[in-house]
From TrEMBL, chain A:
This is Cytochrome aa3 subunit 2. Pfam families: COX2 (PF00116). InterPro entries: Ba3_CcO_II_C, CcO_II-like_C, Copper_CuA, Cupredoxin, NosZ/Cyto_c_oxidase_sub2. It comes from Neobacillus kokaensis. Signal peptide: none annotated.
From TrEMBL, chain B:
The chain crosses the membrane at residues 21-43, 55-79, 100-119, 134-153, 174-201, 221-244, 256-274, 289-313, 339-358, 378-398, 419-438, 458-488, 518-536. InterPro entries: Ba3-like_Oxidase_I (IPR033943), Cyt_c_oxase-like_su1_dom (IPR023616), Cyt_c_oxase-like_su1_sf (IPR036927), Cyt_C_Oxase_1 (IPR000883), Cyt_c_Oxase_su1_BS (IPR023615). The lineage of its organism: Bacteria, Bacillati, Bacillota, Bacilli, Bacillales. Residues 17-552 form the Cytochrome oxidase subunit I profile domain. Belongs to the heme-copper respiratory oxidase family. This is Cytochrome c oxidase subunit I.
Amino acid sequence: MHMHKLEKIWLILGISCLIIFLTTVGVSAFYLGNKPPSCLTTIDSEKVDTTKPFDKPGLHKVEGKEWDYELVYVASAFSYNPAKVEVPLGAKVKVIATTKDVIHGFEVAGTNINMMLEPGYVSEYTTTFDKAGEYLIVCNEYCGSGHHLMFSKIEVVK
Amino acid sequence: MINSYGAKAKVDPKDAKLSMAHFFVAFGALALGGLMGLLQTLVRSGKFELPLGIGYYQVLTAHGVLMGLVLTTFFIMGFQYAAVSRTAGTHSNAARTTGWVGFWLMTAGTLMSGTMILLNEASVLYTFYAPLQAHWIFYLGLTLVVVGSWVDGAAQIMTYAKWRRNNPGKPSPLLSFMAVINTVMWIVATIGVAATVLFQLLPWSLGLVDRVDVLVSRTLFWYFGHPLVYFWLLPAYMCWYAIIPKIIGGKIFSDSLARLSFILFLLFSIPVGFHHQLTEPGIDPAWKFFQVILTFMVVIPSLMTAFSLFATFERYGRGKGAKGLLGWFKVLPWNDARFIVPFIGMASFIPAGAGGIINASNQMDQVVHNTIWVTGHFHLTAATSVVLTFFGISYWLVPHLTGRKLTKAMNKLGIIQAWVWFIGMAFMSGAMHIQGLLGGPRRSAFSTYGDSQQALDWIPYQIAQAVGGTILFLGIILVVIIFINLAFFAPKGEEEFPVGEAENLDEKAPMVFENWKLWLGILTALILFAYTIPFIDIIQNAPPGSKGFKTW
């Protein structure tokens, strides 16, 4: 099988770019800690309301952890609990969320917080809120006839 | 001559009839699905409400099923069945009967699932994620579509195997080889969706079992969901690699490299489903990244494809005496719908592929996951690159099969149609990409989310999508007019089924390419490597299963 010289050069360039690209993504994920949300904790989706920390949804200050606050959400068709929270500017927050019924999305529009909520699983993502203003949380996975009415708000305040 | 191209220049009328049967269903699905798409963009603009209590998500389910599953599967099976008949010889009676059985199974399944969607018993979108629970007839219908496609594909494999028996030691005709690669990939991939539907969703919707393991079901779905898009794409590649060179009067750059790239697509399309599950809990991030790496391997055959297509164009142009760096570009047959319609599709694949790289880039997916960016992405890949190529194919294939001619008027209308499509898609897909980057979710009806400023900022883009959707619907009306003309009204005559020849006929494709034990062995090993450990983890660490929900 014959390969044209220019095609060889083209493929070597392309594959080199690919290796550089994947290395960058891999180093960012595993060395700098930017992995996509992949929490492995499970939960009984029918006992969410009585399982910690979901028995107390909302923002909680924590001590002695790598983050300052835990922000706990319980999703169900077609709402999030809490419906609105205020987060201090610059706070490092671990968002912890789960669903009581079907699959929902959890996306804080305009940020990198974007994760699937699946029955039986806990989803987590740690981030710093470093810009003041109102942020919209939208359900971005179809969950039923009221899917587009499912939202919550975060107010980042000074 | 190594390949018996042209030995049988016309598809047998009996085979033509079965191909046309597929195309009637495919174009019917396109017309209906297109109307559903128009309605969605109008609703989401906020200026229009659906009458008669029809639900937005019901329309959305119909659009996805009709366009993503029915149009594509029927068109591809009809096209590949004709391509095998044309290049490997007329199908035997047994193969043809097998094809018809497959066709009717798929049609019956489509009608069953379609009825349930119409009755609002299955507004679960075409991805039907558990624990949303549709009527069992919906799942049974989808099973029949998949099983029917296996039977339908078996007809192509039978004729390919017959050719191999009759021509020992010779590489099979390129188009037949490519059709069989795609059919084999489809069969291996659909095992995943068949498993979740047959063993999980069907018994659960019938009430035989109470609960379903959601993550197992999603993982099986996405084992199928990614190769699904390559199943759409490879027939377009068949046209670009092996048919377009003949249409422009050039040669296939390299028969062997074309085969190699198809084998690479077969190997690297399947063990990569986790890149659709990057933001999900319950899957180890190391395994996600491993599948991301495998996903990116398809960059290699994609680069090979881009190189060969443009090499064919350049060599043809220079052969015509074109001068300068880009002079060859001007002499391409821009007035031939059979060329320019797929060419617009081909060109759209450049931004479409770049967007796909972003989606699959592990943590970068968080920026766009389940935003309307993703919808914009696959309306460039599937709904532009693939679909325009399918339109371009049908402009010569339909008259070839019906014994008619593509007239000058229809050729011109075909070119207009492609530009209308391109303009409509530039508005719609462009606006979707931008709105997605701003966070706008996909698969959602119009909402201001409690008058949130962010959501209000999305509305202009939603209006742009409705403008684009309206232009695209005009494009659908045009293509349906052309299809009906070519099927029933165009003047009788002979339209060529173009099949390209390799530039270097002395270079025989290595027979290792036809060693199915080898390639299926490597494919199985890759799939087992990518899935075994994470799949065992998912099952061993499973939470209690979910009961069904009907939230629509």
